[in-house]
Amino acid sequence: MDIAYCGDYRAPANLLAGRVILVTGAGDGIGRAASLAYARHGATVILAGRTTAKLEAVYDSIVAAGLPEPVIQPLDLAGASEADYQTVADALVAEFGRLDGLLHNASELGQRTPIANYQAGTWQKVMQVNVNATFLLTKALLPALEQSADGAILLTSSGVGRVGRAFWGAYAVSKFAIEGFCQVLAGELEDTTRIRVNCINPGATRTRMRAAAYPAEDPRTLKTPDDIMPGYLYLMGPDSLGVTGRSFDAQKKV
């Protein structure tokens, strides 16, 4: 697999001016940082997530900074139906007429345990949030993305979704699926639309999920979500036009 590094990108201030971008898991961690970064570069951000209070806090931060007013979209990826995703898409089209970007950031970690001990219910929840929800939301939003001058879909991958690692169970398997989904969808859209589809691996980042996966790790040794935003901006903005079906690292390998 050809992996590229995109963390040295320097985004112009107006990179995303006038664009409409939906971010899942927007209430915390990388999703929060991406929502703020996209807003700072001119985008109207649709803040999607499970916890309304967290989305409201991000909303308040964006508005307080004098940035384009975002939209809050409560969305429970673990329980939403296909009809729920279509309702989100219909509301978005009614308000904006199109969607320019979609960041699939929300993920479920699940258990760190051998496959022999993995709980079936946990496995199914991880697959539902990380894979099935990605498929259903993307499918519902494709018509809106097709109305963009150059739409971008950005999927969140992981190092354990490229090379399997013991005890990472459903999370690793789900990220392998995301890499495959990226390649399949990019191939389908490349010749018929102006939508590009790429994966980004954030790497070791100071988030709640990272702390849950590595409880003994000193978080001060990790980059913050804000530190890794250059790659998220590059792959969402027009400077990545024509780049599709690829997998990127937000951080340099050491």
Descriptive report:
Helix 1 packs parallel to helix 2, helix 3 runs parallel beside helix 4 and helix 4 packs parallel to helix 5 (169-189). The chain is globular, with a radius of gyration of 17 Å. The chain is built from seven helices and eight strands. The protein has helices at 29-40, 52-64, 82-96, 120-145, 169-189, 208-213, 229-236, and strands at residues 3-5, 20-24, 44-49, 71-74, 101-104, 152-156, 196-201, 246-249. It is an alpha/beta fold and 254 residues long. An eight-stranded parallel sheet has the order 1-8-7-6-5-2-3-4, sandwiched between helices. The protein starts with a strand and ends in a 5-residue tail after the last strand. It has a single domain (3-249), classed as NAD(P)-binding Rossmann-like Domain (Rossmann fold, 3-Layer(aba) Sandwich), CATH 3.40.50. The model has no long low-confidence stretch (mean pLDDT 95). Strand 3 (44-49), helix 2 and strand 4 form a beta-alpha-beta unit. Helix content is 40%, strand content 15%.
